[in-house]
Amino acid sequence: MTAPASAPTPAARPMPAGERVLCAMSGGVDSSVTAALLKDQGYQVIGAMMRFWPDDKRVDTFDSCCSPDAAYEARRVAEQVGVPFYLLDYREQFQRHIVGPFLEEYAHGRTPNPCVNCNTKVKFDELVKKAKMLGCKYVATGHYVKRVENERGDVEFWRGDDPRKDQTYFLWGTPRDALPHILFPVGEMEKPRVREIAAEKGLLTAQKAESQNICFVPGKVQDFVAEHIPQAQGQIREIATGEVVGEHLGTQFYTLGQKKGLGLYQTHKVRHVVHLDPATNTVWVGDYEDCLWNGLKASAANYLIDLAELPSELEVQVRYRTAPVKARVIRADESGFELEFAEAQFAVAPGQSAVLYAGPKLLGGGLIEDHVRTLPS
Fold first, then answer.
1. Does 67 appear as a known binding residue?
2. Contact, 69 vs 27, CB < 8 A?
3. Which of 115, 128, 181, 362 could form a disulfide with 157 if both were Cys (CB 3.0 to 4.6 A apart)?
């Protein structure tokens, strides 16, 4: 591992006239503007939307993105821009790579992030393969990510220029060999400017609201999980003493750090979930300090640089909406890594992503593993 190096200056990428690009269109404003910008830059653009919703689509699922209505809007935008549009069937892959693992993780006491899986296994794996089949050199999306070419000509992913919209956190699992074939035309813009461009071009999605929820989950995640994972009554125990302090209906309904809705016998005490043990169907609770992690271990690692170039000190982001923190690399290999935080972090949830950065540069990431705790008998 090398010492941290100063990040290279972003280089202007070439705009080869006539190159064919498959533009992923979701029916939202970001992908709409992406298609329009690529067309203006001289690319041969093919618009495509990945169909994820099943034939028996439930009410309140796939409504804001990747829905039949969104497909109609994406097709209309493609007509406005003047590019062909195709609806690609990825229902089976979505169920296999996204919905199934989502429920399996909850059943094992973990907190998954399906958007990471969707980008890793479907959008930047399956879709890149489809693009090659269609003779496209590139896949383009509306992610707020910067595509940078370093002094060696290697493609890197950097944080988008709009800090409120940066989406590099979700792309750590992108196959490294796919990086040169991915374009992010709005990555160097802020969201208001994207909407301005859409309005200037008269795109019908210019004022469309953004999607926020998990697309395949109707209502609350807990209700969706309850439909698919049987309830099983178990005990809530105090981590310091082993004392039984409450009962629950399944570890799948809890996440690390949670302090509300625990239903403890002594309701005046403030307790946080500090450990989930599906094997014994036990929820362990404790003080705030019991939820502090001094570091983490991650599995299923993916690196966007040579492992030998991974700096010994870097930044790690353990949730999408939290700031990255400084950390020291204890171990890193092809299977995973171990980090020590500069400052202890609260409730680092197993199953979530630990995403590695050197300044704005995305280095890779992995899936957070649980602590090995010594539990009271």
1. no
2. yes
3. 362
pLDDT at 266 over 90: no
Euclidean distance between CA atoms 119 and 328, whole angstroms: 27
The response to whether 29 counts as a known ligand-binding position is yes
pLDDT at residue 325 greater than cutoff 80: yes
Catalytic residues: 118, 215
Task: Name the pTM for this structure.
Answer: 0.92
Domains of the chain: 20-200 (3.40.50.620), 230-286 (2.30.30), 290-368 (2.40.30.10)
Sheet of 272-277: strand order equals: 244-248, 234-238, 282-286, 272-277
Contact criterion met (CB below 8 Å) for 364 and 303: yes
**Cβ neighbours around 233 below 10 Å, total:** 9
Determine if residue 223 is labeled as part of a ligand binding site. Answer: no
Q: How confident is the model at residue 52 (pLDDT cuts 50, 70, 90)?
A: confident
What does DSSP assign to residue 8?
A: P
